[in-house]
Amino acid sequence: MGHLDVLRMGEEGAAQSHRQTQRRLVPEKELTIFRIAQEALNNVRHSGASLVEVTIDFGEEALTLIISDNGRGFDLEQVLRGDGSHTGWGLLGIQERAALLGGQYELDSAPGRGTYIRVQVPLIREAEDVEDTPVAG
């Protein structure tokens, strides 16, 4: 069974986290995944969302990060063209980081519909890629 963390934050700011086993990527890959999540959550801050869900599924062959919100959403083509007040640099950074890890990036958003980001990164079951770590405390 893989690693699964789910964090839900609602209007009251209450967070719920569910954890199964803990496995770690090597620090460089772990930091890149963290930066992807950080950028996606930075975008949520501007979305007016009352709910955001972050899921990390640490499977046998891939790590999947999903961040979705119920915010105002946006026109992806307009943002990537740089029309309006948003430039899309953060979204391009997410895409580039996923590609550096040999992963895939999926984004779905539309005005009034929220945003869904999915990043899937392949894992190599070698000592230098993934290590099992005992959970402290």
Please describe what this structure looks like.
It is a single chain. The chain has 137 residues and is α+β, with helices and mostly antiparallel strands. The protein has a single domain, classed as Heat Shock Protein 90 (2-Layer Sandwich). The protein has 3 helices and 8 strands. The chain has helices spanning 27-45, 76-81, 89-100; strands spanning 3-9, 15-19, 23-25, 52-58, 62-69, 104-109, 115-122, 130-132. A hairpin with a 3-residue loop joins β4 (52-58) and β5. α1 (27-45) runs antiparallel to α3. The longest helix has 19 residues, at 27-45. The two termini are 21 Å apart. 20% of the residues are buried.
In short:
The protein is α+β, with helices and mostly antiparallel strands and 137 residues long. It has helices at 27-45, 76-81, 89-100, and strands spanning 3-9, 15-19, 23-25, 52-58, 62-69, 104-109, 115-122, 130-132.
Parts with pLDDT < 50 across at least 5 consecutive residues? 1-15
Question: How does the overall form come out from the CA principal axes?
Answer: globular
Structural class: alpha+beta
Determine and state the CATH class: Alpha Beta
Annotated CATH architecture = 2-Layer Sandwich
Distance between the termini: 21 Å
SS field, number of helical segments = 3
